[in-house]
Specification:
With 287 residues, this protein is α/β, with parallel strands linked by helices. It has nine helices and ten strands. Strand 2 and strand 3 (40-44) form a beta hairpin. The structure holds pyridoxal-5'-phosphate. Pyridoxal-5'-phosphate binds at residues 108-110, 113, 134, 136, 178, 182, 207, 209-210.
Length: 287
């Protein structure tokens, strides 16, 4: 145990020495396209609220009314005392929205992937994943007890070879991918993936966490995030293990509530920060 703790301490010292120790910034007040951190207003470029629905007056009013009518908690897990009419109404609405027979709610995306993958696959089965699938998919596959393999990110030819090789060797074959990849924002070739699964008798699971409704080395991503923070932008650096070592990046998201002025400001700040760090030498982005 002592060795483990001193290992953590050593890692922390190394990260701090390389200026890669990323502290969580406390947001105060509501979150939307602008947020306040330690009394400073920043443009938010890391939110998943792509449609800008957080803070929408109808949603705020519905949440307030729900607290008044239902209180703030269920008093137990859903399986025992925590199942309410609200859950069931929401599931019915989501099923209608998705054009499906039924839907099931989980408390988070992580839990969803762990629950779904361990329900659909088990010992004797195979889970095939894109290399950049979200970490919760990898955890779900591990916990399922099935064998698992990855295909090279976005390489449908590689997936096809894996499917061919797996033929007849497993009970169920599950192919699992983010539909919009959480780290790079690129999109799965869904028609091809679906066709391959049909052809090889595999089941396809698509994680739509970033699609419903709607750089460089590690040190540089962290430095750039800090520079952008100082210039008024809230941007998240994403490092290992969320992405492979050496492929850290900044993940910027645009929300429906951002104004053109805010995005122009953000572009100018990114350009300035990129120059300050020597990442941008030539002409400006969009010049
Ligand atoms: C594609 C994908 N799936 C699942 C999750 C996990 O979601 P949660 O943070 O709700 O556990 C995330 C989180 O960002 C994600 O990007």
């Amino acid at each position: 145990m002592a060795a483990r703790i001193s290992g953590y301490e050593e890692r922390l010292r190394g990260l701090t020495a390389r200026d890669q120790y990323h502290l969580l910034e406390p947001i105060t007040g509501p979150t939307n396209h602008r947020v306040t951190v330690r009394g400073r207003e920043l443009i938010m470029l890391g939110s998943y609220s792509y449609l800008g629905l957080i803070g929408h007056p109808r949603i705020d009013a519905a949440a307030t009314a729900a607290v008044a009518e239902w209180g703030t908690g269920a008093g137990g897990v859903r399986l025992l005392t925590g199942n309410t009419g609200l859950h069931e109404r929401l599931e019915a609405r989501l099923a209608r929205f998705a054009g499906r027979e039924d839907a099931v709610l989980y408390a988070s995306g992580y839990v969803t992937n762990v629950a779904i993958l361990s329900a659909l696959a088990g010992p004797g089965d195979l889970v095939l994943m894109d290399m950049l699938d979200h970490a919760s998919i990898v955890d779900g596959a591990l916990l399922s007890g099935a064998r698992w393999k990855t295909w090279r990110h976005g390489d449908m030819g590689h997936l096809e070879r894996q499917l061919r090789e797996a033929q007849g060797k497993y009970g169920t074959i599950l192919v699992v991918a983010d539909s919009t990849f959480s780290m790079d924002g690129d999109v799965l070739d869904l028609p091809r993936a679906a066709a391959l699964c049909r052809e090889h008798g595999a089941r396809l699971v698509v994680d739509e966490a970033h699609s419903i409704g709607a750089l460089g080395d590690d040190g540089k991503a962290f430095d750039l995030a800090r520079e952008l923070f100082d210039r008024g932008l809230f941007v998240c650096p994403i490092g290992h293990p969320a992405v492979p070592k050496g492929q850290a990046r900044l993940r910027l998201t645009v929300m429906a509530t951002h104004t053109d002025g805010e995005l122009d400001f953000a572009l100018a700040a990114i350009e300035e920060a990129g120059r300050a760090l020597g990442l941008l030498q030539r002409e400006a982005v969009g010049a």
